[in-house]
Specification:
The complex is a heterodimer. Chain A has a single domain, classed as 2-Layer Sandwich (Alpha-D-Glucose-1,6-Bisphosphate, Chain A, domain 4). Chain A is 23% helix and 41% strand. In chain A, a hairpin with a 3-residue loop joins strand 5 and strand 6. By secondary structure, chain B is mainly alpha-helical. At the A-B interface, strand 1, strand 2, helix 1, helix 3 and helix 4 of A face helix 1, helix 2 and helix 5 of B.
Chain lengths: 162, 124
């Protein structure tokens, strides 16, 4: 079992990123936190960034729009459309950053066991430019503890698939 | 190749479990095709095909020794892929830490509502 609080990010195929994270809360709460603007505003965005615009039209075909404000007056807008909504366990939405072409499709699955919720988000990038957008939008990434870390990641993937 | 194409090539090469297993093995030191084929239930030609994909993506290089042509892992493209993943991770890690706090608050207020029974609380 994964521990609460550990985020796992891996790739699947050349277009997908898979993130898993366990939360110490029932999935209904996690689902609400991902879909209600008043809750999203309280957590969405990396350290130093906050949501200045958070509009959500929560229905299939409905749009959402987020604007994140970051350090030094930087801002980053993103928007998309909800394609599937099956609370509290599944949703599919598109995701597009203002300044970059291309769109990702994000499938979010929440499973609950013993009061804890496992989030699995699969991000399908039709274009690699979104990947670059994530880097270039000023989301600082840590120092390069690269080689060993990736080797570890690979080793754990191998162990998991064995 | 542009950085984006490099990432694509790297992720495409990493998409296959056998190739990831080969890289994980090479992370602990160079090895010949024979040595690499041993733990897998695969022929040497099949392993060689995987090695070609890895080599084209720049993830491994082959030694000059004509007999063994030992394979070794190349850190740079892996490092770039890892940097990219790391940036992504940081975005969500920061967000999720705040979400943990929020969820704790939500749970606490649900409990309060339930114990006090002062109003029709949402039973989440």
């Amino acid at each position: 079992m994964k521990n609460t609080g550990t985020l796992h990010v891996t790739t699947r195929g050349d277009h997908e990123i898979v993130m898993t994270r366990v939360f110490d809360a029932p999935r209904r709460m996690v689902y609400d936190a991902f879909t209600k603007p008043e809750l999203l505003k309280r957590w969405f965005g990396p350290h130093g960034w906050s949501l200045s615009v958070c509009e959500v039209d929560l229905r299939v075909g409905g749009a959402y729009r987020f604007v994140l404000q970051g350090p030094g007056g930087r801002s980053m807008g993103m928007s998309g459309v909800y394609r599937e909504l099956a609370p509290p366990d599944r949703s599919v939405h598109t995701e597009k950053f203002d300044e970059y072409p291309g769109e990702a499709v994000v499938t979010t699955i929440l499973t609950e066991a013993a009061g804890k919720t496992t989030l699995t988000a699969t991000v399908y990038h039709e274009s690699t430019q979104i990947r670059d957008a994530v880097i270039q939008s000023g989301m600082e990434h840590g120092a390069a503890e690269t080689y060993d870390r990736l080797a570890e990641m690979l080793a754990s993937q191998v162990a998991a698939s064995a | 190749m542009t950085p984006s194409q490099h990432l694509d090539a790297t992720f495409a090469a990493l998409a296959d479990p056998t190739r990831r297993a080969i890289l994980a093995r090479l992370a602990s030191g160079e090895a010949s095709v024979t040595e690499l084929a041993r733990p897998f239930d695969m022929s040497q030609p099949a392993i060689s095909k995987h090695l070609q994909v890895l080599e084209r993506a720049g993830l491994i290089s082959r030694g000059r020794d004509a007999q063994r042509r030992p394979c070794r892992i190349e850190a740079q493209p892996l490092a770039r892929a890892n940097d990219w993943l790391e940036g992504y991770r940081q975005f969500w890690e920061g967000s999720f830490e705040r979400l943990d706090t929020l969820l704790d608050e939500m749970k606490a207020s649900t409990k309060k509502t339930r114990t006090k029974r002062t109003r029709k609380g949402k039973t989440q």
